[in-house]
């Protein structure tokens, strides 16, 4: 990717296992448990799913069911509570799990004059906080239904996942009058192939097996990061 100014464009980034290692949902769950929103049994269940997610990505995991369970834990809580929780988990957990290479690429896009948007199945409020704390342009996430600012447990337009990610990205580009052929997309999961196919510049980031094969067939670049690099970046921040 070049840092030289180019045509007006957007770079879309998946969050889980692309921008940060693991599932942001798990860390929201930890924070929710600490605030006594959920039980110890709930957080142990989330922990098992996080371990599996780190090992195999979204393969073999019922993402829809996992997301639905996560939505249940915030029924009766307010948007302000979720935003506050999101800031808390970003500072205590997520910032230490960011892939430095992916963050650097996102910032290079910004420097080149492109917009950078997160496109994630995580709750809109969580995605907004991550984008805000990283000084990105914005975020497109799963919109949770509220009544008088209180979450009902229902979703607005479903989970931002798979084809839905491509739909919201297309809608954003069209609203801004931006040619998708000039845009970029980054993801680790084969579920995001619709998003990756949508843009002119697709990049697979630590791809799962299916996406790796697809990327190789399409000639897409592949970014690879290792846990050692993440730990090294965390150690340098502590100095």
Automatic annotation (TrEMBL):
Q: Which residues form the signal peptide?
A: none
CDD domains recorded: HAD_PGPPase
InterPro entries according to UniProt = HAD-like_SerB, HAD-like_sf, HAD_hydro_SerB1, HAD_sf
Please verify whether the record's keywords include Hydrolase.
yes
Keyword terms of this UniProt record:
Hydrolase
Q: Which domain of life is it from?
A: Bacteria
Q: A GO molecular function for this record? A: hydrolase activity
Q: Report the sequence similarity comment from the record.
A: Belongs to the HAD-like hydrolase superfamily. SerB family.
NCBIfam families xref list: HAD-SF-IB, HAD-SF-IB-hyp1
What is the protein named?
Answer: HAD-IB family hydrolase
Q: What is the lineage of its organism?
A: Bacteria, Bacillati, Actinomycetota, Actinomycetes, Micrococcales
């Amino acid at each position: 990717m070049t840092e030289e100014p180019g045509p007006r464009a957007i770079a879309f980034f998946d969050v889980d296992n692309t921008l940060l290692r693991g599932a942001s949902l798990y860390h929201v769950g930890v924070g929710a448990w600490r605030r006594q929103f959920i039980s110890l049994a709930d957080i142990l269940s989330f922990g098992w799913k996080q371990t599996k997610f780190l090992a195999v990505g979204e393969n073999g995991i019922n993402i829809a069911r996992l997301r639905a369970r996560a939505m249940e834990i915030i029924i009766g809580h307010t948007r302000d509570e979720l935003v506050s929780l999101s800031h808390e988990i970003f500072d205590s957990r997520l910032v230490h799990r960011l892939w430095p290479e992916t963050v650097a690429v996102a910032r290079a896009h910004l420097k080149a004059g492109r917009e950078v948007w997160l496109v994630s199945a995580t709750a809109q409020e969580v995605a907004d906080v991550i984008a805000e704390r990283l000084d990105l342009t914005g975020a497109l996430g799963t919109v949770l239904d509220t009544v008088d600012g209180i979450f009902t447990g229902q979703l607005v337009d479903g989970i931002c996942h798979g084809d839905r990610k491509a739909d919201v990205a297309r809608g954003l580009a069209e609203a801004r009058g931006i040619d998708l052929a000039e845009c970029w997309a980054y993801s680790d999961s084969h579920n995001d192939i619709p998003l990756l196919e949508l843009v002119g510049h697709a990049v697979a980031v630590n791809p799962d097996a299916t996406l790796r094969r697809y990327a190789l067939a399409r000639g897409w670049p592949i970014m690879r990061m290792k846990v050692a690099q993440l730990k090294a970046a965390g150690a340098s921040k502590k100095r």
